[in-house]
Structure formats: C-alpha cells, structure tokens
Amino acid sequence: MNDISGGNYTTADGRKIGSTLMEMKNITLRFGGVIAIKDISFDIHEGEIRAIIGPNGAGKSSMLNVVSGFYNPQEGEVWFRGSKRPPMKPYQVAQQGIARTFQNIALFEGMSVLDNVMTGRLTHMKAGLLSQMIWKGKAEKEETENRELVEKIIDFLEIQAIRKTPVGRLPYGLKKRVELARALAAEPKLLLLDEPMAGMNVEEKEDMSRFILDVNDEFGTTIALIEHDMGVVMDLSDRVVVMDYGKKIGDGTPDEVRNNQEVIDAYLGVAHD
Amino acid sequence: MAHASSASAGLDTLPRLLARNVAEFGDKPAYREKEFGIWQSWTWAEAAEEIEALALGLLTLGVNEGDHIAIIGRNRPYMYWSMVAAQMVGAVPVPLYQDSVADEIAYVLDHCGARFVIAQDQEQIDKVFEVHDRLPGIEHMVYLDPRGLRKYDHAALTRYQLLQEKGRDDGDRAELDRRRDAQTYDDTCVMLYTSGTTGKPKGVVLSNRNIIETSKASSEFDHLRHDDEILAYLPMAWVGDFIFSIGQAYWTGFCVNCPESPATMHHDLREIGPTYYFAPPRVFETQLTDVMIRMEDAGRFKKWLFHHFMAHAKKVGPDLLDGKEVGFGDKLKYKLGELLVYGPLKNTLGFSRVRVGYTAGEAIGPEIFDFYRSLGINLKQLYGQTEASVFITQQPDGEVRSDTVGVPSPGVELKIADNGEVFYRSPGVFVRYFKNDESTASTKDAEGWVATGDAGFIEEGSGHLRIIDRAKDVGKMADGSLFAPKYVENKLKFFPNVLEAVVFGNNKDYCTAFLNIDLTAVGNWAERNNIAYSSYQELAGHPQVLATMQSHVEEVNASVAQDPMLSGCQVHRFVVLHKQLDADDGELTRTLKVRRRIIEEKFADIIAALYDGSATISTETEVTYEDGRKGSIKATLEVRDAQVFDVQKVAAE
Predict the structure, then answer these.
(1) pLDDT tens-digit profile of B443-484?
(2) Are the Cβ atoms of A156 and B38 closer than 8 angstroms?
(3) How many CB pairs under 8 A join A and B?
(4) Residue ranges of the alpha helices (H) in B408-455?
C-alpha cells in the first residue's frame, strides 16, 4: 500500500483525497492544573473521513472543541486552509466553514425541523435587519434560495415526513439526523461529528453510517468524527487518530491502528507491575 | 363526448392515448410530484416529451420489440413514464414490487428474460447486482437517483436523465414512429407478476385490449373526468395501480399525483385532496383509529360535539349519500354537522373532495365502512384480481353495502359453480400466464371463463355478489351445511379487541374457534380500568377479558344466525390463546394470513379439548424468538361455551 500520510491519493473505492485542509501542531490544552491534551499533532486531508478515538476521558471531545474553536489551546498552532488561525470565537470559526454536531444534541426543541435546519444557513444570510423585518427585496430572495438548499438537504437525509414537526417530539435517532442536517446546511468545508452514533440501535447506526458516507461522497465534505463504536470507526474512516490520557498513541489507517500494540493496550488494559 | 369513440378512433394503445391527451389537454397537468417541499408538475405535453426522450434513449440501448423491461421503484412520474416509454418502443414493461428481496427479483427477471432494468435508486440497483451472476440476460440498467451510485462501474449502467438526453440527441425518431405505428390492440400492454401466496409468482400477460377496454368501462361506470385527481401511492407492480394511474389516467386524462416519500403520504393526501381514491381496508382502519385516539385526548366539549354529530351522521349520512328521503330536521342537523364536524374532519383526513372512493383486497369492517360513508364520503367496494385487469364486480352509486362486493362490472359475466366457486368472463380477462401454459389452461377454460378461487353467491333480489371465503377453505359440516371459516373469522376480527381468529369445524358437528387478543386495544382497556397484568399470557387469560371475548363471539353468532346458508358456522366453544400467532413460528404467512394446517397440527391438544367438552386444557407450546432461539410456554387455558342462536327464531323476531 502506498503512503497516504501526505494526502493527494485515490482511495480503494475511488474517492479523491486532496492535500492538507487542517493541521494541528503541538497542541496542548490545560484546565488549571489538569492537562487535557498534551502536545498533539495531526492533520486532516481534504475529502477524507478522519476519526478520533480513545477510551473515556482520553481528551477526544476537548480535541474536537479545539478544532471547532470553542477552546483555545495554551500551546500549539491550528492551521486551516493554508493559514494559521488566530484565537477565534466559535461564530468566526463557523464563518470559516467549520460546522459541528454535539454529543448530547443541541437543537431548538420548540422549533420545527425545518426552522432548525434553516438556522444552519444563518452565516450565509446577508440581508439587513430592516430588510428582514419588512420582508421585501433581498431578504425574501435570500430566504427562497436558502430554503431551496435546505430542502435538498432534507431530501438527502430523508426527513421530509418530519419537516414541520417540532424537534422536541422526535425520537433520539431522528434528532441526531436533524442535527446533521443543520450542520450540512452551513455548507461546511469541514464537518465535525461528536459521537454521531452514541445511544443508537444497530439499525440507526447503519443508517447514520450510510448518511455520513453519502455526505462525504456526494458533497465532498471533509469529516472529522469522534466515535466510541470501534466497528463503525474502522468501517467508515480513512485514517484514525488514537488518544489516551491526553496523548496521541496512534495515527494511521484503520488496519495500522488495529495492529498497534499501544492502542490494543489502551483499549484492553495491561497489567501494571 | 370525445371518449365515446374507442378503438375504432385509433385509441388502441397507450402511446396513442397519450397523443390524444396531448392534443386535447396538452397544457393541463398530467403528473405532479412533491419534491423539495414543493409540488412539481408536468403537463400532458411535457410528459409526452419526457416519455418520448426516454423511448428514444431506450432505442439507443438496442431495445428490441417484444423485449421485457423490468421496472423497480416507488410511485414517481419518472417510473410511470418508463412504462409508457417501454410500450412506445414495442417492449413490454414488467413492474416489480420494490420491497421484494433480491431472490424474488432474480426469479422474476429470469422468468421474463428481461434484458433491461429501470430502477429507482441504489437500493434496487444493488439488489439486481447481488443476483447478477445468475442473470446473464441482463444487458443494461438505468437508474433514476444517482445518490451513492457515482463510483459504480458504468459500463452497463446509465442515469435516466442522461439516457433521455442521449435519446434526444441521437435517437432514431423514424424507427420510433415505425414501432409506435405497428402496435395493435392485441399486443401485450404490460406483464404483471401475481404476488404468489401459493407457489412461485406467475406472469400475467395483459393486452392493450384488456387494459383499455377495462379502463374505458370502469371510467364510464364512475363518470371519471379529465379534471379528477388521484394520489398514486400503492405499489406499481400491483394491477390496481396500473389501471388507476395509467389505464384510467390515460383514458380520461386525469392527473396522477405522487407523494414525496411513503412516510409523507397522509400529509400529501391532504394537500392534494384527491377526487378519486383507492385504499385497502387497513389504510381506512388506521386513519379511523388515529381519529378516535385523538378524540380521546380532546376537550370535553369537543368530544361531546364529535360524538353527538357522529351519532347523527350514522343515522342519516348513508341515506343522504344514497339519495334516499330524509326528514327536513335531520337534513338541517346534518348540514350543521357538516359545518362543525364532518367538513373539518374530512379535510384533516384529506377526503374533502373525494367523489369516488374504493376499497378492496379484503373484507372491510362494517363500522369502519359506515364511518366513512356517514361522513358523506362515497366509499365503495370492488372485487377483482390481476387476471381480470382488476374489475370483476363493483358497487354502483346508491347501492353500497359493507357485506357485498357489488354487481358485475360493465362487460363482465359471472357464474357460480356447484362448489360455490365464482367464475367470470370479460374483455379484461388476461391473455395467458407467461411461459406457463399449464396454469393458463387450469385457470381459464376454452370459452374464456376464469376461476377466481373464491367461493361466493349472488344475492337474490339485489344481484350483488357476496364472497364468503377462499374456495379451497370452504367445507361441509358433519350435517352437510356449509362451512366457511373466513366468513366468521372476519366478523370476529372486526372487533378491535380481536387480532386474529381461527375457526374450525370442517366435517365436525359444530364450530369452534381460537382467538388472539389485540394487545394494543385490550392493553389500553386494561390500563383504563386499572387491571394489572404482567404478560400477554396473563392478560389473555384474565376473566374479564374472557367475558368480553365471549360477548364478541355471541354477537357474531347472532349475526351469523341471520344467514340461513351459513348459520351452521356459529362458534359453540372457543379459547383465547396464550400466545400471539406469529409468522416466525410458521403459524401465519409473511403477509399475515393464517396457515390452517400448521395451526391444526401444532395445537391439536387444544382443538381436542374444544370438542371433548373439557373445561380447561393444559398445554405447552414452542415459540421462536426474533433472534431465532427457541423456547416454550406453558399455560392452562379455559375453554368457554358461547351461546348460539336458532335460525328460525331470529328470523321470526
């Protein structure tokens, strides 16, 4: 197998992977005296599905929060699309083209699915407050265009039947799908998924896997995901970063990672003598 | 009227009807589909252009006259166009059930020798690929939705829209015209596979004559018009959908509306408000249950309003619909009810504009049927099968009842054989079973009479046909009277508390029955009455549940007793089973039909107890769990005696 760590190759199933989209250089993140992430570096290539795995408390979600700009690391640099990213507010990161879903679902429960997904378009709405209030000219045109895109996503994720349903009434698995829809509505360059399959049954997991693959395939979206379910991770991702106690202990293709002794130890535990 | 002319005016193939519709209603909508949240529509002229482009595209693929083209997908305009495009190039469309598994698809594709497949999406394409090795005959596949298919090898795979484009650019128009002109009234229009509850599916060959004569007669019977609207949501492989959404739509020129997805069907139904509607009984049943559950949650005033006016509707609604004389006060009150209850309810259900509604396929509960009729919805029953191009009998306006299936459709002759089996002969009678002369000969005799496999009788006076059972299930009691288990079982199953019923009695002195409680309905009742139970078995054996079941059985006995022919079928003794009859245990078919032989063997001890007079029976039954493991449940069941009624006594009352 040729070396894929540099990007710019074609996968076995014919997807084109580009060069580096995001690079994390020597990231260290501390909360007071607790070191959540310790000197971690890895990169994400354009068009790939990149997974971050690790046992509980390994620092996966913290890592994702660094990528999404929610946490600013004390040390290290985040490079996105060829330039170094200064400390940013989450909304500025969103404007850069990074969207995410949350481990424990953060939707507007009282709003309909459609309205929730429309909020994903907020960063793309340019019309002024006045124009939006009187609902004329630019605001109206903009809404129509955005709605069209949102409808395509609704169609894509097969949630037409719940378009007008308040999110609070939906079962868990569907909420997860709505969250994915909202993230997609932002037309992200990089999509971050925090445990997309957590709490799902086998069938829901299969559906979600299918959607993640289809999103990557159809829109060419780069995806970084955190997941507990090893089977899912190994099937979905092109490359995997393994973390344990805030450190990176493995990085490579699913096969490489699976055979890495350190990774096996971290997951299965070793006798400490 | 333009439609009065028929084959003589050259309207003898669907492509010719299409051309007529373009000429007459060119700018009127022919197809609508909800996509991306909006109803997209195509006029007859636009649809004809799309169909022609696809037909030209099929020519570039090398489709020959007489080829079979398999079509697999859900109701979408594009899939309907595929059927007509196939006919245009002289090929035979073969629609398949989209939920068939790969093996079933393999059987049909192999049997009809299809060279081409038009499939809706990746799911269907994958199924064909899965069995591709066994099907060397498949040359090329066309797909509609490209999602997930980008990376597939496209050597023998083309996207629908690209094929149309290719057709528009390079298609041989002269050849298309030649083929279109060469078709005759007796050429094959479509081949439909019967679902095959017994044995392998059979390919029913229907000619242009079958389809067009049937469509014409049935359209005229119900006065269908070109401004009618239907919602196409039933499987495309089913003959009914072919007649409604293609045959009648092309004959009268009405608009076919396709829902956004199967899950949005009820919502889309409400938006479209069809004027002509078909649904199997279970759809009506589910809708009624939904209404009732929502009314339970409504405020006290609303509940009162609903029940008060529904009671009135039940009294006069059906008569008003049938055009019978109703008192002025009642009429006025019905008008008020229409304003307050019936109108809004019909709107919610999507039935505000229904002029003609049909149900068929199985028996519909009289309460359900009357509920819709009393609202002023012209719901009727029909009886048909694939081999008849649907219509055998149907109910004319003003002669609608829940216990008959109507009078012979125009052009249909009926006769009842000595054993009670119903035979028919009509212009819609199929040409033959494809590659199965033996079955053709055993189903259709030399004079064109076709055996339905159902037993029934023609009611004296009204001339309506009444179906009592499958002919092979009808037997004789020991005293020689008629034994029709399904007739009684259906009556029992109309009670919401009864999920399943199996009646025994062939060659016996009296009838007995097994009953299954409906866990949803009975569980709900238990909850409301503070009855605690820990398992299905315990609930099924609860004395109050048994008492309720007994009252249901006795009510059915009273109703069966009114029919002198079938009065011997009253249930004398019954048990409420400790387990639900299940397809996993082989007791039901996958389509949830009762398998009598297996049940008779498996529960032989309980049946013995039903006939030896014992009051209880202890039994042990093997069950299969969903993951395939096996276990067994033990139970002691109470055998109950039900009151039976005397025929003469009831008649005398």
Answers:
(1) 899 899 999 988 888 988 889 998 888 888 888 888 878 888
(2) no
(3) 34
(4) 437-443
